[in-house]
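Researcher: We're teaching a course module on how sequence relates to structure. For the next exercise, students receive a sequence and then see the predicted structure as tokens, so they can try to spot secondary structure elements on their own. Here is the exercise chain.
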Amino acid sequence: MTPAARVQSAIEVLDAVIAAARREGASAERVAAEWLKARRFIGSKDRRAIRDLAWSAIRLCGEVPENGRAAMLAVAKNDPAVASLFDGSRYGPEPIRSDEPAAATGFAPAWLEEGLAASGITREQAAALLGRAPLDLRANRLKTTRDRLAMTLPVATERTQAPDALRLPGGTPVERWPEFADGLFEVQDTGSQLTCNALEVRPGEAVVDLCAGAGGKTLALAAALQGEGQLLACDIDRPRLSRLAPRAERAGAKVETRLLDPGREAEALVDWKAKADAVMVDAPCSGTGTWRRGPEARWRLTPAGLARYAQMQAHVLRIGADLVRPGGRLTYVVCSLLDAEGPDVVAAFLARNPDWRAAEQLVGAGTPRGAGLRLTPWDDSTDGFFFATLHRL
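Model: And here is the predicted structure for the students to work with:
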């Protein structure tokens, strides 16, 4: 494939990504994967180049571009090498017209930029949200230690702030390694690992992961339990929760799963009411802290959508709090840097519930924000998170 053909292919991928973002369809990763799957003749080197071009355009355009060509023209304005490939060659893009507009560049839609600024996010912190994320592993304490794992892996690793974390370059094919098949590690961002550490789970405790999803945090909590105690993982999403059982088996973790009906979660958890020592509430959120991994997500978020997230967050926090025994604790987590989804939700909960107190967070990273801590790529080299641990009196 010629360089010009790669640019044209990236434009077509972008067209598909933009269309999906407008209708709140599949993620850019999935859209690109489907586009490439339908074109098996494209070699691996060309696939990587096409993806890199497309993602460069996604990161550059704050607002949703009109189309893929306009998005790629924004890249071309900053990169003469890319501009030169708009040459009208076979399978390449048509030449750039003198009056042809490129997509507007920016960090995010204007309303979202304002929201992040109002939440204390600086321009440097905001720009770092669109960088390239490394790949972090969590050594599975049920089977190994970080030091032993580092010695067995086929590449050099770097230790991060989380006690079980190892960092590798992004894109390293770790899931092909025998150590992964043997359950010696899970892929998990250092920031996510730190939020699990904030709950301070101890062997023998009764623990609930309320919004478990596919179980990334669940497995970290299971490792902290060391095979002693109870661990219940819940979610309303059947396909995601169904992925936890094989992961737990590979990790050697004991986990009970429970599918919940939306709006009737409390009924399904009545047997756990006021019985849990510790509850993790990894609440659904906008994901503003994870744009390094899915930069097109900022094209999908709307003010109305953000308001719906805040309602859901208050809802699941109430449900989680009802499960905690007196003297127990709860960690509330969102992978968002907007105050409306983090500090404001916790502050409102504490104002309504005088029998709860915010606890001091000692995880080795983060900046105080409201009653909790904030992690950012710029300050902590992690995904963006807000989390707060609350104690029931």
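Model: If you want an answer key for the exercise: The first strand starts at residue 135 and ends at 139. Residues 303-323 form the longest helix (21 residues).
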